Amino acid sequence: MAAPAMAADAIYSNWLGKAIGGYDPVAYFTAHKPVEGSGDFTAKWKGATWRFASAENRAKFTAMPEKYAPQYGGYCAYAVANNSTAKIDPEAWKIVDGKLYLNYSKDIQKTWEADQTAFIMAADKNWPGVLN
Questions:
Q1: Do 127 and 74 reside in the same domain of the chain?
Q2: How far apart are the C-alpha atoms of 120 and 112, rounded to whole Å?
Q3: Do 74 and 120 reside in the same domain of the chain?
Q4: Residues 103, 109: contact at Cβ < 8 Å?
Q5: Which residue in 15, 56, 66, 120 has its CB near the most CB atoms, within 10 A?
Q6: Integer Cα distance of 1 and 73 in angstroms
Q7: Could you tell me the residue range of the domain that residue 18 belongs to?
Q8: Model-level pTM?
């Protein structure tokens, strides 16, 4: 007998429960690059542990998590556009219209960027149903 299918978590996190692989979501907006977070500055949100490079970034996130959290729960934007989920590479990212999008790899990122408007529209349509 096959095991029942399990729904994916609303926030993608690694096996240690760290969202974005432990990278600071606020830094994408403020430092304009991926920055690893510290175990000294963490917050729990939607069942995942988020790490930050500073207390200031943690405060910004906890005040407005929807502003800084990646789209689609931190799953690969290209995968969600294709009605699936996939892990991400924190180095494969882009901010579009004030929203953070992450992808599986830099190669997938290039594919996604080639038609990002269509991929975003498709992913918006699929999210969060793709988790079921």
A1: yes
A2: 9
A3: yes
A4: yes
A5: 120
A6: 31
A7: 10-66
A8: 0.92
* Residue 2: inside a domain: no
Same domain, 81 and 132: yes
Which residues 6+ apart lie within 8 Å of 90 measured at CB? Answer: 20, 21, 23, 34, 102
Residue 86 Rama label (left phi>0; alpha psi -120 to 50; beta) = beta
CA 46 to chain centre: 12
Which of residues 49, 66, 83 is at a domain's end?
66
For residue range 20-34, list pLDDT tens digits in order: 999 999 999 999 999
The Cα–Cα gap between 101 and 93 comes to: 6
CB-neighbour burial class of residue 42 (10 A; exposed 0-12, middle 13-18, buried 19+): middle
Q: What is the pLDDT of residues 70-104, one digit of tens each?
A: 999 999 999 999 999 999 999 999 999 999 999 99
